[in-house]
UniProtKB/TrEMBL annotation:
Ionotropic glutamate receptor C-terminal domain: residues covered: 371-602
Compositional bias (Basic and acidic residues): 671-687
Subunit structure: May form heteromers.
Name of the featured protein: Glutamate receptor 2.2
Protein origin, superkingdom: Eukaryota
Molecular function via GO: ligand-gated monoatomic ion channel activity
Organism: Sesamum angustifolium
């Protein structure tokens, strides 16, 4: 192709070139256009490393892929996907760079990148697709040429990654060729979401498509009919723009079409056009309504600010919405709603996802193993946070401790169920292991790590931490060589100084007592009471800091803390970098810790209210009196019911009553004979109550009358 172009420039009056289709051709023709001052129009270059200021004669009559990357990133942000996997062709390096930049601006991470050569075999593609099932990320962006991209979806369905919980998005490199797909390929792409430059449906477009089909049928009566895609429309509009620019210049000055025979300094056989600069200027000012929409060049690129979002369903595509550069995501182009920029996908029409699901994929899932691999440390010594035991029969790993309790409670607060299994680290209980070595096993061996793992900046390079569930710090704990002595507080001062202080306090107390004797007895201040004055002599400020350390509590006074405490980031759970589980577990941990804080705070406030306020003391006293009265009332009612159920005609019961009455009367009538019996009798009468005692005396009298 290069030789043909050079030959045309040497022997023909060429005023413009339309047609370079890859990056190598773009670079060559851009340099050629600068040398001969001739516009070079490309209808396939969606992006380029060539600067427009340095290559003014290179014109791209296609939308810029950087704008498409922004639309793609906003769509993923609207669906709340925080990580995506990109599958691309190796030659599309520049497009991928712009796509990565757009995703970073909206804080979406490219978790994995799969690059395929254009001539990749099916076995290699299936092997790479099989790796997708082992990843947590379930959102895949495909940016490939149609030859490889259409084969990719046939193989993806065989691998099993076109089912529920998966989301697939294709760019215009594939979406512009969907009309040429066969039935098998289209069936494998059901539920795929796509984005492409918006081409309005106009009468001119419909008329042109009919003429195109009619001509294709006349030229090819046996083979398949080649459908017209967006690239064909851009070519038609580019040629129309070039012809319109030439006509506009010819109307003003027809002599400009002559070719100047100036020689180029590097190649004397090439001619420099004096018509090229004016043609380029006129082409930049050309605006018209073409088949692909409004044609206008801005900085050497087609000004395309609207992209269509569609869904592959059945035998066609369903338009579900649009993305406009200055408006964001919208369901309708001509909507009269708010003009604010929107990133919400709620305005989009209903979407059918892979697997005929209407539920939006959350963007991630537990890997194909089916369980979340939770790593826990198996260690000696301090096991209050994590204590690992192995079932000898099933070899199943069990764990208990404070960290495990936080993890299990957080699982209950998640909005989705998670099946997990504990996998212990340090099988042989080697004392030389480290937490850093354990964290380096993420994500190869563990999907997350639960334990007393300190959040440190060096570790945050290769793992992501949740919010801390407990504070932590570094402090020096040393052995307490001196035994505990209750008189340790007297050590700072000598005995004679202590004696002087004590004598001074007593003298001060005596002086205050003598001076305050003149105060009248009408003074009601509690501190003025004589019994309160000596207490004021011995009071001194005392500060208590409660810092219950489990280690010190376990070993009592054998160790002690010295020096300041250096705070760290706290204890947290570790995840792979960019894991979507981080945000979910962080929120659950906040709910757990805030719930504990509210419970403790409420109990503390209630206790202070009841003990420190007059109202609280009254409420407490009333409550105690009420409980006491209830207990006494129940006891009295129980005794009354027992006494009222006595049968007066029962002689045996009368004898029992006499037996009860006689020791009571003995105790009451002879208090001096036996002091102990008298006390017991008082207690019994007090417990029975005066009403019950009268009942007993009345029943005794009636029994005596009957006996007489």
């Amino acid at each position: 192709m290069f030789c043909a172009v050079l030959e045309l420039l040497q022997h023909e009056e060429v005023h413009g070139i339309v047609g370079p289709q890859d990056s190598i051709e773009e670079t060559f023709f851009a340099e050629l256009g600068e040398k001969v001052h001739m516009p070079i129009i490309s209808f396939t270059a969606t992006t380029s490393t060539l600067s427009h200021k340095e290559n003014r004669y290179f014109v791209r009559a296609t939308p810029d892929v950087a704008i498409q990357a922004q639309a793609l990133a906003m769509i993923c942000q609207g669906f709340e996907w925080h990580e995506v996997v990109v599958l691309r062709t190796q030659i599309m390096v520049i497009n991928f760079f712009l796509m990565n930049k757009a995703f970073q601006e909206v804080e979406i991470r490219l978790g994995y990148i799969f690059s395929f050569p254009s001539s990749a075999e099916d076995s290699h593609v299936m092997k790479e697709l099989g790796k997708l099932r082992t990843k947590q990320t379930r959102v895949f962006v495909v940016h490939m040429n149609p030859y490889l991209g259409l084969r990719l979806f046939n193989l993806a369905k065989k691998v099993g990654v076109m089912s529920e919980e998966f989301a697939w998005i294709i760019t215009d490199s594939l979406s512009n060729f969907l009309n040429s797909m066969d039935f098998v390929t289209r069936d494998s792409m059901q539920g795929v979401l796509g984005i492409r430059p918006y081409i309005p449906r106009s009468n001119n477009l419909r008329s042109f498509q009919k003429k195109w089909k009619r001509n294709m049928i006349l030229k090819n009566t046996t083979g398949p009919i080649m459908e017209l895609n967006a690239y064909g429309l851009w070519v038609y509009d580019a040629v129309t723009a070039l012809a319109t620019a030439i006509e506009n210049i010819a109307l003003l000055n027809s002599t400009l079409f002559d070719i100047n025979i100036m020689r180029n300094g590097t190649d004397k056989r090439l001619r420099i056009s004096t018509f090229g600069p004016q043609l380029l200027n006129e082409l930049s000012r050309t605006k018209f309504r073409g088949l692909s929409g409004d044609f206008e060049l801005v900085d050497g690129k087609l000004n395309q600010s609207t992209f269509e979002i569609f869904n592959v369903i059945g035998n066609g595509e369903k338009s579900v919405g649009y993305w406009i550069q200055n408006r964001g995501i919208t369901g309708e182009l001509n909507s009269t709603g708010t003009t604010m920029y929107s990133t919400s996908t709620k305005e989009l029409k209903s979407i059918t996802w892979p697997g005929d699901s209407v539920i939006r994929p959350k963007g991630w899932a537990i890997p194909a193993t089916g369980k979340l691999r939770v790593g826990i440390p198996w260690k000696h010594g301090f096991t209050e946070f994590v204590d690992v035991t192995i079932d000898s029969a099933t070899k199943h790993t069990n764990a208990t401790g404070f960290s495990i309790d936080i993890f299990l409670t957080a699982l209950k607060l998640l909005l989705f169920p998670i099946n997990y299994e504990f996998i212990h680290y340090n099988d042989t209980k080697n004392i030389d292991w480290s937490y850093d070595d354990m964290l380096h096993e993420i994500p190869q061996k563990f999907d997350m790590v639960v334990g007393d793992t300190t959040i440190w900046a060096p570790r945050a390079v290769y793992v992501d931490f949740s919010l801390p569930y407990s504070e932590s710090g570094v402090i020096l704990v040393v052995k307490n060589n001196k035994p505990f002595d209750m008189w340790i507080f007297v050590k700072p001062l000598r005995w004679d100084l202590w004696l002087a202080i004590i004598v001074a306090c007593f003298l001060m107390g005596i002086v205050l007592h003598i001076l305050e004797r003149r105060v009248t007895s009408m003074d009601t201040d509690p501190l003025s009471a004589n019994k309160e004055r000596p207490r004021m002599v011995y009071w001194s400020p005392v500060a208590v800091l409660a810092f219950p350390e489990t280690f010190l509590k376990k070993y009592d006074s054998q160790y002690k803390m010295v020096g300041p405490t250096y705070r760290t980031g706290g204890f947290g759970f570790a995840f792979p970098c960019g894991s979507p589980l981080v945000s979910h577990f962080s929120k659950a941990i906040m709910d757990v810790t805030q719930g504990l804080f509210l419970i403790i705070g409420s109990v503390t406030i209630f206790a202070l209210f009841c003990s420190e306020t007059a109202i609280g003391r009254k409420v407490t006293d009333k409550t105690k009196n009420f409980i006491t009265n209830c207990l006494v009332s129940k006891t009295s009612q129980g005794n009354s019911m027992e006494n009222s159920s006595t049968d007066d005609g029962d002689l045996g019961q009368a004898r029992d009553d006499e037996e009860i009455r006689e020791p009571v009367q003995d105790n009451v009538s002879n208090p001096r004979e036996d002091t102990n019996e008298h006390v017991v009798g008082e207690v019994e009468l007090h417990e029975i109550g005066p009403s019950n005692a009268q009942n007993i005396e009345m029943r005794t009298a009636s029994n005596e009358e009957r006996n007489s």
